[in-house]
Design brief:
Largest sheet: none
Number of helices: 11
Distance between the termini: 13 Å
Subcellular location: Cytoplasm; Cell membrane
Order of helices and strands: HHHHHHHHHHH
Protein name: High frequency lysogenization protein HflD homolog
Organism: Reinekea marinisedimentorum
Number of domains: 1
Structural class: mainly alpha
Shape: globular
Radius of gyration: 16 Å
CATH topology: YcfC-like
Membrane topology: Peripheral membrane protein
Keywords: Cell membrane, Cytoplasm, Membrane
CATH superfamily: HflD-like
CATH class: Mainly Alpha
Helix content: 55-70%
Number of strands: 0
Strand content: under 5%
Length: 208
């Protein structure tokens, strides 16, 4: 399970899961409670024992594995344009963020506060915990000149609670993009390793 391609595929699946969930929120205003809970649990899992442990089980990134598999198929059939744009935007944002030690420090400090909030409320889906996780994104990623532009239903995008969930999920995606790069992931892999990534995603899904 701990091969390079498995680590890269799991992390990349996290990026694509974030993109898929952001698209759902932007268009419908809703995702399942378990999805926001597992997202925040993953964000706050700061010392995982493995890439699989980041997600507390491969089943918690099944949406991302399916989306990634579709994206790696010929011509990316089955994945809408917005999801692909969000995934590429997340990867681009992470690359810029890691070059800003001041923002990385701000993110670390904000995450520590969110960990404290989660311990206090005892829930990964409490409104205060979601708001705190969203603030982690605001204090770091949102300070970059490059922004991920989310499109969808204006009534949902203007809802503060939906906006907080979107920022939280984008933060999860950025964290996964960081893990992907740490595992040796590069953008050119989307051209040179599509079949290997797709096959690995298939294999990971077979045990979910």
């Amino acid at each position: 399970m701990d091969s390079t391609i498995n680590r890269q595929t799991l992390a990349l699946a996290g990026v694509f899961q974030a993109a898929k969930l952001v698209d759902r929120l932007a268009k419908s205003g809703m995702i399942e409670l378990q999805q926001i809970e597992s997202t925040i649990e993953s964000i706050l899992n700061l010392n995982p024992s493995s890439y699989e442990d980041v997600f507390k089980g491969t089943e918690n990134v099944a949406i991302g594995l399916n989306t990634l598999k579709e994206a790696m198929a010929k011509n990316g059939r089955g994945v809408n344009r917005e999801v692909l744009q969000y995934a590429m935007g997340i990867i681009a944002v992470q690359n810029k963020l890691q070059k800003r030690p001041d923002l990385m420090e701000a993110l670390s400090n904000s995450l520590d506060r969110t960990v404290d909030q989660q311990k206090y409320f005892g829930s990964f889906s409490h409104e205060a915990v979601i708001a705190s996780a969203a603030q982690c994104y605001e204090s770091s990623v949102s300070k970059l000149s490059f922004r991920i532009r989310v499109t969808g239903n204006p009534s949902h995008l203007q809802n503060p609670k939906v906006a907080e969930k979107i920022r939280t999920i984008l933060l999860f995606g950025v964290r996964c993009a960081m893990l992907w790069r740490q595992a040796g992931g590069h953008r050119w892999h989307f051209l040179t390793s599509r079949k290997a990534i797709k096959d690995c995603a298939d294999g990971l899904l077979s045990v979910v």
